[in-house]
Structures are given as C-alpha cells and as structure tokens.
Amino acid sequence: MEKETVIEVKNLTKAYGAFKAVNDISFEVYKGEIFGFLGANGAGKTTAIKMLTGIITSTSGDGSVAGYNINKQRDKLKENIGYMSQKFSLYEDLTLMENVEFYGGIYGLSKKQIIDKATLMLDRLHMNHIKDTLISDIPLGWKQKIAFSVAIIHDPKIVFLDEPTSGVDPITRRQFWDLIYQAVEDGITVFVTTHYMDEAEYCDRISMMVDGEIYAIGSLQYLLNKYDSKTMDEVFIKIARG
Amino acid sequence: MKPILFVMPIVQLAVLAYTADFTVKNINIFIQDQDKSTISQGLINKIDASDNFVLTQVSYSDFDGIEAMQSNNVDVILSIPQNFSKDMNTNSHTIVSITADAINGTKAGISINYLQNIISDYIKEYAAQKGMVNTKAGIEIVKRDWFNPMLNYKYFMVPGILVLLVTMIALFLSGMNIVREKEIGTIEQLNVTPIKKYQFIIGKLLPFLIIGLIEFTIGIGVALLWFKVPFVGSVLLMYLFTTVYLVLILGMGMLISTITDTQQQALFLSWFFSVIFILMSGLFTPVESMPIWAQKITLFNPIMYYTEVIRLVMLKGSTFSSISFHFIVISSSAVVINILAMLNYRKTT
Questions:
Q1: How close are the terminal C-alpha atoms of chain A, in Å?
Q2: What pLDDT digit, counting tens, does each position of B17-36 carry?
Q3: Which A residues, 190 through 229, put their C-beta within 8 Å of a C-beta on chain B?
Q4: Residues B113 and B232 in one domain
Q5: Are residues B192 and B47 in the same domain?
Q6: The domain spanning residue A143 has which CATH number?
C-alpha cells in the first residue's frame, strides 16, 4: 500500500544569529501514524514544531503540512491542524464548557456541532460532572486531557503535541495515550514531542533530535537494532554521547 | 523599553512644567465699543497690549458677542456703553459690563479680575493726565458669568474627572490584555488557529467598549444625581462621541499591548502616556495658557478633545456642528490607531 505523506520537511533551518536552533532537518510523516519527535531539552523540538504550525518563520528550507506550505499558506494550514503547546493553553478563568465553546467557535463550528462534540468528549473523558467548573479548579492531569480534546475539536488532519505529558503522573500519562490512540482511530495523524523515552514505545516511528539536528529516524525496532540497544534510553544515551 | 526609562522623566519634566501653569494667558476677548471715541479706543489698545488677552474682534454695532461665545471662540465680552467718554469727562455714573464664559469658573474669575485691573488702571491714568481731582470716576463694572452662573467648580471638574475615569479604564484594560495572554501562553494557542487579525482585535475591543460605556453611564448618573451637574446638550451626541473616543483609547491600549512583552512594560507605557495626556488636556489648567509649542502638542492629545467635548455638550449644550472638528479628529485617529494595532499584532514571528 502506498503511504500518503501528510508532513514533508526539506532542509528546514531556524537560526537565531549564529545559533542554529534547528539545523537543516528533513523528514516525512505518513497519514495515520504516531510520529514521535524525541530529543533532550533544548534540542530544538519546540522550535521545529512552531515552524510546522506556522507560528514562527523558518530561516531557510521549506515544508508542507496537510498539503499546505508552511510559509505561504499559513491560514489554510491552521484550519487543518490542532496544536497543544508546552505552555498550558486553556483559559483558566473560563469553565471547561466555555473553553470548548470558545475554541469551537474560532474554528467555525456551528452551535450544534459544538454541543455534539462536547457531549462526545465529556463522555469519553468521564468529565460530565465538571463541565461548568473553572479550568483553574481542575487538576493538571485532567486539564492536559481536556486541552488535548479541545485541540482536536475541529477534526484536524494532524495534531501537534508539544510535551503533552510533562509533569503528569504515570496513570494519567497512560490514559492520555489512550486518548491519542482514540484520535488515531478517528483518522488523525499524531505528531508528538516528548523527552520520556518510554513513551517512544507507543510511537509508530521515531526521530531522535540532538542539538538541532535529526540523528536517526525509523521504527522502534529499527533504532534498537541500529544502536544495538535494549531500550530507547540506551539509544538516546548512545546518540547523545556521539 | 530601556531608553523610555530614561527619556520619560526628562520629557515629563521638560514639557509638563510649562503646561501645568495656573496663570491664565491668551484669554480671547470680544469688545463691543458703542462709544467709538478716542477714550474707548485707548482702553481697547491697553487691553490689546496686555499679555493675558487676545483681542479677537471689536464690534461697533449691536451686541453680537454672544454668538461668538456660544461657538467657543470668545472667553470674555467687554461692553463699553455709548456715553462712556462723556461720563468719564463729567465724572458721572456709567456702566461697563463684562461677560465671561464661566464653564471653567476659575479661568472666568481670573479673567474678570485681570480685566477689572486694566480698566481701573486706565481710568486712573486718564484722570491723572487730565488733572482731575477725583480719580474715582463714577464707573461701575458689572460682571456676568455665563453657562455656570454660580461659578460652581464642580460643574467644571466633574465632567473632567469622568473623562479621566473612562480613559484610564479603557487604556489599562486593553493595554494589559493581549500582553497578559502573551504571559500566560494562551496567545500561542490562538496563533495556531485560523482566526483572522481583525476578528481578534474586534473580539478584544467589543467587551471593553461595553464596559467603558457602562462606566460612562454610571459616571454620568453620579454627576447628575449626586453633584447635580446640569446636562444641557444632547445625551445621544455625548454617547456617540464617547463610543468613538473609547474605540480610539482601546486601540491605543491594544497597540501598547502588541508592542510589549510583559504586563510591567505595558503598565509603564500606559502610565507614561496617560500622565502626559492628562496634564496637557486642559483638565486642570487651560490649554490657552500653555506656550504655543505645547498647544500644538495638545492637538495630538485625545483627552484634550474629549475634555472639551464633554464640557461643551454637557454644560453649554453645544450641538454636532460645534464639535464636528473634534469628531473628525477622534474618529479618524481611532481608525488609524486600530489599523496599526491590527498590523502590529503578529500571528507569526
């Protein structure tokens, strides 16, 4: 079966003066997969994701996401992607439901669509009882799950998750990954960054980024074999040490 | 931001020391001379030579200074009666009348005092010149304060304070807003959505506009019911102008918010502008008393326009034609500033 490419990146670079946060990276992401974008803190993952979502411009190189050019077709691109940032992004002083209505409205969903989506979402999250609670009163792990569900409220082709599980307990992390699998079943391609190497095992393909460059890319098995390791932790340490 | 830290105190000291001046200068005077004599002409020359007065017009006919005062071109009307010179020479009783626009009660009082001094000086000089024994000619000066006959200071200040209230709330609410979203990170989430820039700015503007208008309504209520300030003009006109003015001030706040990165910077800039705008608005000291260069700066001061309009409409009952210039300036600035804020809001960096 021919794989359909949904993200295509060629020689993408972002330089801040002499410092290259992202240095000449190229890769492809296929429809329906979970693509793990791994790397240490400061490896350039967030910068790369921001270029792909059209928040920052690239210094050189090019790319397309969901069929739209990342530099020239930003508005169309943004309609077709979801994004959950590292910084928490729901409005703390609005309730869960108000946040859903707000973001649903921005993506142009009708009132009925928003209600349908919200019902399904609250059901999946088992959060019907807190739909009128202020986000600031909801525990962090739950908030992350809500933020993810809000990020895909408009059924995007691709969702970008930037360290979605940092600071969350192992059980909630597991539940969070259940939500990701659910999204994949619904036909959404997932692009996720993390520095938890065990989470890499949930991904179909993994790229390893060090100092702004991609050192290795492939399936979990491929990387384990290539670096003669038993776990991703080992792979990571071997790559990081050069 | 750093240069502003040092430029701010210099600008404020250099500019404001001249503008926050409580002496009254450049009082526009209209003289109605029914005597048409050398004696009355001498008095006119003396007034014209004074630093405090600017002679706008001398009329030798009927009493037509009222219209000029109504249209805000004249602060004081001096009326010299027909038999002025005759009465001066014969030492008989004569009445000189002074009518002042007393919306600004303090300014009216000071103007009348200046004028009284000039007139009595003139009479003394004239008497001495003629070698008259009785230097106290039978001249009586009658004064009238128009638009605020009781010289109620509150009539003048309450609308002015209302201006401050509405301005500060609008500027600070909008100035802190976008930058706050930058701080907590929600702006990034908005930037990955396909939201259009104009939608974003309108979405930010509308709620604050409504809040501003509610504040204004409460303020007007307090002014009318508590301070018993009269509302002579059209309420609708005042609301129309206030709406346009709020859009301008909110746009300025938004612009500040888009060029700053932290709430601290935004607060700093907002204060910088509001202090200058307030002290140069004519709210506390008359713009006419400021040096010419400072008066030119006030032409770019939205608070100056709003202060004038609220006093004109509330106390004087001015109609749209008298404030059309103010309206054009404020509405066109509102458009320009909001477009700038829109362009300056970047979804991509």
A1: 36
A2: 677 666 788 899 999 888 88
A3: none
A4: no
A5: no
A6: 3.40.50.300
